[in-house]
Structures are given as C-alpha cells and as structure tokens.
Amino acid sequence: MPILVEAASAIQTFEDKDLGERIGVIESLLQGADSAKLLATFPVFGIDNRLLEAALVLKATAGQVNVLIHALGILLAAPAILRDGEKVLSLSLGAGNTGKAFDLETTQRVAEFKFIHWKGGSEAIRQNSLFKDFYLLAEYETRKAKELFVIGKDLPLKFLQGRRSLASVMSRNNKLWADFQERYGQRFSVVSDYYLFRKEEVHILDLLPFLPSLGKVPTLDQEPESL
What we know:
five-stranded mixed sheet
C-alpha cells in the first residue's frame, strides 16, 4: 500500500468520524491517569509511534497539496477569465519566489489569486498576504488591468476597508514595510486609508463564478492561510 494511502487510512481509523470528539473522549478518560493507565489506554485507541509517523507524512504532504490547489485553480479559472483575443504571457503556478511578478500576466491584465476560504475570525496571516498582493498590484506601473481574485469578496473587502494598523499588517515583512514607508512615509496609518486611495487601481474579483467547484468542497477549521 502506498505510504500516503496507508498514512491517511491510519489517521481516518483514529479519528473515528470526528477527531474533536475522539480527542475529547481521550482527555476525559485519562484525567488523573498515571503512567501505567496511559500506556494501557494507548492500544484501545490505536495510539503509537506509527500513528504519529502517519500524521507527519500527511503534514509533509499538505504543503504540496497547497501548491497543487494554487496551480490547478489558476489553470482551470484562466479559460473562463480570458477575453477573446487575450493571450497568456506568463504564469507563476508554483510556491515561493518564481522570478515572476504575478500569478498571471496576459496581453490585457496582471492578476493574483488567493485560494483561501475566509472565515471572519482572527485571520492576520491571510490579511497580511492579501494586503501584500493588493499593494504590489496597486503600485505596479502598467496600463493593463490589475486584478486580485479571491473566494468570496465580502470578508476580504471588510478587511481592506477596516482599521487594522498598516504597521501591524507589514510587521513581518521588513522589505515591504520599507518600500511602503519610502513611498508614503506617515501618510497612511490604517489599511482603509491606503485602500481608499488605491481602490480604483485594483479590481477585487470573486473566483466562484469562474470556478464554482471552489464553493462546493467543505473546508477544515485548520485550513492553511497562505494559499
């Protein structure tokens, strides 16, 4: 059996339909347990080093799945997005620094894609990533259309129209913060200040009309924020 299938099977067996419920049962059962009871309980739930190794295999694979979602999402959305006569000039489908400015550049547009299902809670990492893409698009010198594709517009726009500090948003990206300060100094203090200044530069577009399958797949509570 391939290692990934074996790992997934082991995790599924342990979860027993609901991982949170399973963990809750174990927590209650082991309250006040000594070492002997801990060890005696492990076989009942299938807890051993092989299960840990299975979880580590899936964790290592998750990053590659994120890259695959990003690549497939752009490729499948592109035919619906492109207009008659519009041609692809470059694609950046992988993760990290590919040497290309944007995910997609055509004869008529430059575009970035965010394949994240926003939840409306504390989402600092995805907010930071979204602002970076918006900023880089807004400041890019071109006569082409600038577009930022997201899954559902309401929550991303709520963030861009909100009062989160720009210093906070760029606190983990020294290069971006330095570039922003060089351009604008203390002119803007919160996200909405800059967004209102530049909102006509970048079109925020919902991916769902172009790729409806993105709205049909249930998402996990721990969905990565960096897609």
